[in-house]
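[audit] Reproducing an earlier prediction to check determinism. Same input, same settings, fresh worker. If the tokens differ from the archived copy the diff job will pick it up downstream; this log only records the rerun itself.
[audit] input (349 residues):
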Amino acid sequence: MTKRPENIIVGISIGDLNGIGSEVILKTFEDARMLELCTPIIFANVKILSFLKKNLELTAQLHGIDHLNQMVIGKINVLNVWKEGVNIEYGKVDDAVGKYAVKSFVAATKALKEGDIDVLVTAPISKSNIQSEEFSFPGHTDYLNQELEGNALMFMIQDNLRVGLLTDHVPLNEVAKHLTEDLIRTKIKTINQSLIQDFGIRKPKIAVLGLNPHSGDNGVIGDEEDKIIKPTLKKIYDEGILVFGPFSADGFFGNSQYEKYDAVIATYHDQGLIPFKTLSFGKGVNYTAGLNKIRTSPDHGTAYEIAGKGMADNHSFTEAVYAAIDIFNSRNEYATITEKPLKTKEKHL
């Protein structure tokens, strides 16, 4: 990873133009202090963003560019990924608008791969209107997993609360058959490494939740814990990773046990995200851990019901920008430490 002499270049994909993505992006960078930390490049079209800005009565000053080398430090740069107009109808699920969300995201990902931007922050998309023969991915994470190096893992973060998932966008009735030793081992090692290099935690402690109520209750309410989860966790612990569990999910969050650990791994989507979003108070961030590049996003969706009304809260998007910057700096520090270890004095007998 190359350090830049100036502030960090944050690439931003525009998301669904009929949702609140544009609003939370513009509100975030209306605060001039943000431009002291980073320089944004929004992958979209400056005329459309200027129209949305006027419509929402926002004041952010936009700088349109046609090539990345025209970027100006300290400005809100908008790279014209397309030239034509787009028919915007707030709150509508529109396949035509979905195509522009994909154009923005694919262009931003290419810039991330090629090192033209340092980090990527993605605004919310609608998973239903991005599907096509050219783009048949459930969401951002799956595409990034294909395009970048590593194994992507959804990692929800807010201050010291960090929640990862063994399975993410999997139907509930299929979760159990996805829980294999290989999956559990891969996910735990990914989170352990992320805690070390991305968050500066030297010896992380990781908690894993059980799949079944009361973590199976010794096989009375399901046997996945006894047959798969417990034996795998023991092997991983014996290899030197401090992993504990499986814990009963309801009591674990109910009595604040999560505060004793650097990360919590849930077995399925809602088991982890419901308590996370309850505890993070609208400031949570979705971080894609495990890849060679950094991507974050707010922890909410398109919010069609309030799109275009000026009501969108930008705190989660702003926190996603902060998190991307912090992780970028942490990775650089980790790379410096691991590439140039301190020499130890030789012992002379």
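[audit] rerun output stored. Observation attached for the diff report: The two ends are 41 Å apart (CA to CA).
[audit] end
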